[in-house]
Structures are given as structure tokens and as C-alpha cells.
Amino acid sequence: MNETIKTIQNHRSIRNFLQREVEDFIIDTILQSAQSMPNSINGQQVSAIVIKDKERKEKMADLAGGQSWVAAAPVFIVFVMDFYKSNLAAKKNGLTQVIHESAEGTLVGAFDGGLAMGGAIVAAESLGLGIVPIGGIRKNPDEVIKLLDLPQYVFPLVGLAIGYPADESKKKPRLPFSTFKHEEVYHTQGLETAIKQYDETMEGYLKEIGREAEGNWSTYTSGIYQYVYFPKVYPTLKDQMFKNDK
Asked: In this structure, which of 38, 95, 145, 227 has its CB flanked by the most CB atoms within 10 Å?
């Protein structure tokens, strides 16, 4: 197993950071890695906003639901779905951009944002940094848009807190590999048994880290997924011209 694979498979979320600066050339290396990831039609519909300012990080932490580690991290990067640049390209050629109004456009922008963040995560962890993704920036996307001065055709997807780890958190168990890998077609057989086994594993893990109240994977996840936990996303997408009506 090479070092890259070791780094990927050793991933764990870090929420406690040393008060140590992450130098600009390291941030640039991480983001150049993110920019190098694949993207649909080379449209490059993702951008990254680097936040170091203390007050802005504190505001972002509050908007994300009071996640203190956002403010504590030396660097917070917001990955945005960005069809503003491609809209400028359309205008340059006397054309009208439509893709941002479609479900396909939203899927493309979100998926490419995930690919970019994946590249950033591997790069950061390979350099000895710790990270934690923050989906909570979508809790109040309208306010995040104002805070970051995002134009129309741009939407905040997810944040990434980056810094040198103050400690190494425990690695969270994943569902059995058999639930992830499907040969030729999707296999439903055995999934319920695998989930039951995983729930038992997670109960032990959560007890070990002092989070027994979450119960297990199925209890926690289904409790959240029974409602739309970030209801402002859809109306804010529409305000940013992502109509999803095509």
C-alpha cells in the first residue's frame, strides 16, 4: 500500500487545532490540488474562498449552527458552485447560459465541488494537516452569500476547516464494505443484516467517545433524514438563479 492510499484510508475529522498558522504557499498547494481534480466538460464550475479573518470565521461559525471549530481553525475554505464565470464566457460569445437553471446544472456543480474538496482533503492530510468538512454553511445560505459577497449564479456548497491537529481523533467506523461495493447491479440482499451489525459497532464507538446519546447509525441518521434539515437551501438556490425547473 502506497503512502497516498494510507493517507486516504487513515482519514478522520479533526475539530481541535493548534494555534499555528497555515502558510499561504501550503494553502495554495492544497487548492491547486483541488483545482486539478476532474470536472464536467472542463466547465470548472467550482471556486474556493479562503477565510482567515477572525471576525469572518466567527460569523461563519455562528451561521453554521454554532460550530466553534470553524472559528478555531486557522483557515476556513468555502467551496462554491460557480456558474458566474461560465456566464461571463457565454456573454463573451453572445450566447445565453441556461444550464444553471436545470437540475443537471445543480448536480454537476455540487458533484464537481465534492471532487474538488476531496482533492483538497487528501492534499491537506498528506501535508500533516487536519480537516473537518462543514455542511452547516448551508443552514443559513442566504447570510453566507451576503458575508462572502457571492454574485448570482454562485452558491455555497460546503466548508472545510483546516489546521494542524491538537490531537488525533478516533477513526469513525464505516458501514461494511459489502454495502458499498456492488457487483454489476445494486444488491439489496444482506443490507438489513449489515446495517444491524454496523449499528452494534457504532454503539460501541459512540460509547467510547462519550456520545452514547446518538444511539447508533440508523437511529441517528433516520432521525435527521425524516425532515429537511436545511430548509433555506431551495429558496436560496432559486434566488441565486438555480431554478431547477429544467
From this structure: 145
